[in-house]
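User: Okay, second chain of the day. Same drill as before: sequence in, structure tokens out.
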Amino acid sequence: MEPPTPPGQGIFYDRMRELGWVYGRDFVTERRAYGDQLERIPDLAVELSRKGVDVFLVQGAPQAARVQQVTQTIPIVATSADLVAAGRATGLARPGANVTGVQTLGQLAGKHLSLLREVIVGFSRAGVLETPDGDQGIFAAYIQEAEASAKALNVLLQVPTVHGAGDFATAFAAFRHDRAQAILVHWTPVLVSHFKTVAALALKHRLPTISDLPDFASAGGLMTYGVNGSEVSRLVADIIDKIFRGAKASEVPIRQATTFWLAINLKTAKALGLTIPPSLLLRADQVIE
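Assistant: Same drill. Structure tokens below.
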């Protein structure tokens, strides 16, 4: 049996094989999609619990919290900016409950603004899409960092709230009206579900964008800068390996992703009339042409 390999997940299955777990012989995966409807997660978790799953793998602390509403015993492996700050774990070395995982915490907002400054001449106005569905503590930390960095760079920051896909067009019209020069797109469930729409609207309104979403540049955004998804996939596999071998989630240390990935879409840059400095292109891990 061949493993399912959705975008960015092949490395996970490769690492599991390296650790001695053959897909179809030793383990299988059951996937459930909920889009931006986090309220569906408990019901999906109940369904999977009844099927006898041994581990839940989720992306985001809010998702982990909703699975915990269903089970406090089945291990939950989560990727999140900061599981401790989100209240899902009591510490990195000993998480303490049934949630462990990989933290992707990094100083992203300041780096996002600095990268945009390298590309946009006279950069002085930026926008951030805020959605109320995500881990608000972590999103607040991103905004706090963005505001501090924007102040240091003399950049005015706009932060409209969007509740769903229907609000994106209005938000982008407001960005244009207020003369925003670029948009920061931070990870939240709504934006994960609709990042292609966001990238398309940004192109329509001729607004450069940068995001920590792994596939954002490939979908038409100008730049992606965030943790290296390949490293995260390998670390997740290492944690699940320990759980499969009998370790309790409460005693499996939370791992920290330490490498970052920069992707630049030159086709988008051309459409926006931007010239990417050669020094920035040399630093990119991926250049999309």
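The longest helix spans residues 136-152.

User: Thanks, on to the next one.
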